[in-house]
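Friendly challenge for the regulars: who can give me the structure tokens for this chain first? No prize, just bragging rights.
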Amino acid sequence: MTHDDASHAMLARIADALDRLAPRQPPGASPDAADAFVWHADNGALSAVKTVSRIDIVLLRGVDRARDTLLDNTRRFAAGLPANNALLWGARGTGKSSLVKAVHAAIVQEKPGALALVEIHREDLPSLPRLLATLSGSARRFLLFCDDLSFDAGDASYKSLKAVLEGGLEGRPDNVLFYATSNRRHLMPREMIENERSTAIHAGEAVEEKVSLSDRFGLWLGFHALDQDTYFAIVEGYARRASIKIDPNQLRAEANEWAVTRGSRSGRVAWQFVQELAGRYGCRLDALRG
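First reply, four minutes later:
Bragging rights claimed.
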């Protein structure tokens, strides 16, 4: 054996040893394997989610119109009928993402296996074409969900989403619908819009491409800060479902104090308060899950 042959043999043994030491990448889940998934762009695979963190839809208060509209839109899509992409926008903690997950749970309960929820993170939007190629080969229907969607200056990843929603050569597959939540109605900060308009040769044209992204959502559902009565109704509904035995007047007083210390009233604040309360009273929150 020559010196070169010995070197090649040694390198081959080293490579084999490294392959054995390196953890094998688990295969991606089949699109038919579960009712909920998370998309991982790094390895282009779906990861099945056994238990989705969500609230029962009947416990969501103050969002009646948005709930009914989104539920009807999703129900049509699950039945194979035309439906619109939806943008849920508005104040923080008002139930936008909770509503999406609750609506999905309601549809699956009505028609098991009819609709799968797939979460994609905002930073993974450039991988959308790969994800759609994975989903388009399945016979089932998919609700693509991106939470807290927004874009800052210099961020060009919105172009991937824009082509998928409408206008691209292939566009969105018939078995895929896209829902997104955002604190911004136009998905970009107001100061950025105003700055680009003020420096553009033709005012408005500089931001037309980015602003038109939100126009590609057929449904715009607004979420706003809760009034006190709605906030109390949410807290009382949670406490009742969790079987927390507490005087109603004390419950309201503590809930109000909790909101004051947080500086806001919202579904998220109500949930955080009930978590603290349930812990003190030794109660579990399993009954609140959708």
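The chain is about 45% helix and 15% strand. The two ends are 68 Å apart (CA to CA). Your move, everyone else.
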